[in-house]
From TrEMBL:
InterPro entries: BioY. Belongs to the BioY family. The lineage of its organism: Bacteria, Pseudomonadati, Pseudomonadota, Alphaproteobacteria, Rhodobacterales. It is a multi-pass membrane protein. GO terms for cellular component: plasma membrane. This is Biotin transporter. It comes from the Bacteria. Gene3D superfamilies: 1.10.1760.20. Signal peptide: none annotated. The keyword Transmembrane helix applies. The chain crosses the membrane at residues 6-30, 51-70, 76-101, 113-138, 144-166. GO terms for molecular function: biotin transmembrane transporter activity. It is found in: Cell membrane.
Length: 191
């Protein structure tokens, strides 16, 4: 129990620390940040439930006013900004990433984590982020998706980094990745 709480707090802190990397803000108000890498890693390392809890804790701290988002943003105003879909989508993205690694097994834990990061940390997060952007900015969903497409190369790089870090972790501390010890539940234990 204490280990789970410590890991959840550690990953929430890691996501906050990644906010210290200076963001690049695009013209439509959504910054390119390193924090989505932390979201991907939370799901890929901790799994679905604990990854969701870690990122949910981070979002709760942001909502309470702590300036933890890239650029020192925090507070309820974040939930009325163009980034709302991304911020609200962070815990869901971590959950889906974790769900992927728990249920799909490829030959390499790093490849499993990298693909999980693409599914949760890019596909799911973009769907939620573009929806929030469209709503707040008064754009169509197609227009919002066209705007967030600028993030794809960087986020693919982050998913690759997440996969490499998980692969390294699987070699030096495999017990940290509890999902490696779970049987894959999709019927094809290793692809």
């Amino acid at each position: 129990m204490e280990r789970n709480i410590a890991q959840i707090a550690l990953f929430a802190a890691m996501i906050a620390a990644l906010g210290l990397v200076p963001p690049i803000t695009l013209t439509f108000g959504v910054p390119i940040t390193a924090q989505s890498l932390g979201v991907m890693l939370a799901g890929a390392v901790l799994g679905s439930r604990r990854g969701f809890a870690a990122v949910g804790l981070f979002v709760l701290l942001v909502a309470l006013g702590l300036p933890l988002l890239a650029g020192g943003r925090g507070g309820l105003g974040v939930f009325a900004s163009p980034t709302v879909g991304f911020v609200v989508g962070y815990p869901i993205a971590a959950f889906v990433t974790g769900l992927f690694v728990e249920h799909v097994r490829l030959r390499s834990p790093g490849l499993t984590a990298g693909l999980g990061a693409v599914v949760g940390g890019i596909l799911v997060l973009y769907l939620l982020g573009a929806t929030g952007l469209a709503y707040v900015a008064g754009k169509t969903l197609i227009e919002a998706f066209a705007l967030v497409a600028a993030f794809i190369p960087g986020d693919l790089l982050k998913a690759g980094i997440a996969g490499m870090l998980v692969q390294a972790l699987a070699k030096v501390r495999p017990q940290t990745l509890e999902w490696l010890r779970l049987p894959a539940s999709n019927g094809n234990a290793r692809l």
